[in-house]
Structure prediction request, 350 residues.
Amino acid sequence: MALEQNQSTDYYYEENELNGTHDYSLYEAICIKEEVRQFAKVFLPVFFTITFITGLAGNSTVVAIYAYYKKQRTKTDVYILNLAVADLLLLFTLPFWAVNAVHGWVLGKVMCKVTSALYTVNFVSGMQFLACISIDRYWAVTKVPGPAGAGRPCWLICLCVWLAATLLSSPQLVFYTVNDNARCIPVFPHQLGTSVKASVQMLEICIGFVIPFLIMGVCYFITARTLIKTPNIKKSRPLKVVLAVVLVFIVTQLPYNVVKFCQAVDIIYSLITDCDASKRLDVAIQVTESIALFHSCLNPILYVFMGASFKNYIMKVAKKYGSWRRQRQNAEEIPFDSEGPTEPTSTFSI
Prediction:
């Protein structure tokens, strides 16, 4: 987890004279980041709690509907189902990070590695599934649609996405550990230097943001252009959905990846030598990564609840549940002083 990499350790830098002459009186200044830790203790638990509750409700509904009610699935349905599973698994790691921000890591080194790896796997795979959805929508609008069923290639693509995200999480399994301050952070061997740490972050930026963003941008641009040129169809709703998907992705993911890129550059070239600047970078990582995580709460709204097909399934479930409740209430409300049957009542309807 990127926001844990700096907030738990002090930033050290050397104060050098402008004339470049060596002076033995120079010493390493220590940047105390207690206010950064205090900010994390308040901000992260509150934001993670809101994200966890909201995302759990939306994504659980998606998984339940697709798993138990919608048996005939298209490729987009399979991608959305995998996206919801990835978002749920990502959300389940947030309580651990919230406790870590307040009390430190209390679950041991193994759980530190596993939780960090799960976080990366599901965060990256979620971005990849967003790209897969955009490609499928592009083909659906610009080409002749294929078979209605998902088919084996779709599940093969999903498997490749999960495998790629798992491989990208291997540094978390190797380098994450619990330090002396009881924080779950990455600790790289001295012989590997800063290049490995920066390379890992750059790779996460490329696979988790740049590639999905380029794919989504190209596919949705062509999709929108095709919709505009297509006669005799209702264009406003599909175009609004496309615009909303792209804007939400940019607003939630771009700031975090820009800050993460700046952090990677600083790891290589040590550009930040000011304590206040280092603190601002740490706070920026915490805020922007939290906003990026909130995207998992918006996915069900963007990709599912906006669709008419999924709304129909929600209506069916609501009617079925309403009918069951009405029948149960009728059974419970039979008067004890009457031997005749109760009056029939209408079923619940929306």
Notes: The two ends are 44 Å apart (CA to CA). Residues 46 and 98 are 8 Å apart (CA to CA). The longest strand covers residues 11-14.
